[in-house]
């Protein structure tokens, strides 16, 4: 975990990142390591006085403007409409039985929504 946090800190310094946005993890559906990692990222962001935006999956689904679809598919379509460069992942996710790229789409949606708020 320290390697991950060191990498994040290095990226923050290199790209002069001032805000972090992510989806809150569910304690019932996430590993202890993921929960701990999100806590450590939050601590790191607070130390650096960064803006922190946390979203639930419901927040993300309700904040999108994808033809009124407040669903997983609506979220994926919304991100694809805003960022066509994810076309390959979009088509793969549409064909997957299990959501493989969903977390990536959620992260992009969280960043987009957070950037609109500030």
Summarize the structure.
By secondary structure, the protein is mostly helical.
Using the alpha-carbon principal axes, give the shape.
Answer: globular
The H-and-E topology, N to C, reads as HEHEHHHH
Q: Given the structure, what is the number of helices?
A: 6
Which structural category fits the helices and strands? mainly alpha
**Quaternary status:** single chain
Uncertain spans: none
Q: Compute the average pLDDT.
A: 87
Largest sheet: 2 strands, parallel
Number of β-strand runs: 2
Strand content: 5-15%
Rg (CA only): 15 Å
Q: Biggest sheet: strands side by side, in what order? A: 1-2
| N-C termini distance | 30 Å
Q: What's the domain count? A: 2
In percent, how helical is the residue content? Answer: 55-70%
Question: Would you kindly provide a written description of the structure presented here, covering whatever features stand out?
Answer:
The protein is built from 6 helices and 2 strands, in the order αβαβαααα. Strand 1 (19-23), helix 2 (32-47) and strand 2 (51-55) form a beta-alpha-beta unit. 62% of the residues lie in helices and 8% in strands. The chain is mostly helical and 118 residues long. It has 2 domains: 1-55, no CATH class; 65-118, no CATH class. The mean pLDDT is 87. The protein has a two-stranded parallel sheet. Helix 4 packs across helix 6.
């Amino acid at each position: 975990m320290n390697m991950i946090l060191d990498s994040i800190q290095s990226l923050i310094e290199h790209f002069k990142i001032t805000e972090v946005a992510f989806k809150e993890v569910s304690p019932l559906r996430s590993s202890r390591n993921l929960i701990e990692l999100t806590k450590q990222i939050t601590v790191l962001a607070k130390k650096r006085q960064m803006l922190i935006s946390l979203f639930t999956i419901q927040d993300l689904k309700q904040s999108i403007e994808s033809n009124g679809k407040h669903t997983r598919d609506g979220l994926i379509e919304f991100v694809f409409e805003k960022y066509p460069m994810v076309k390959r992942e979009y088509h793969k996710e549409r064909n997957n039985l299990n959501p493989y790229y969903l977390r990536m789409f959620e992260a992009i949606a969280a960043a987009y929504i957070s950037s609109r708020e500030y």
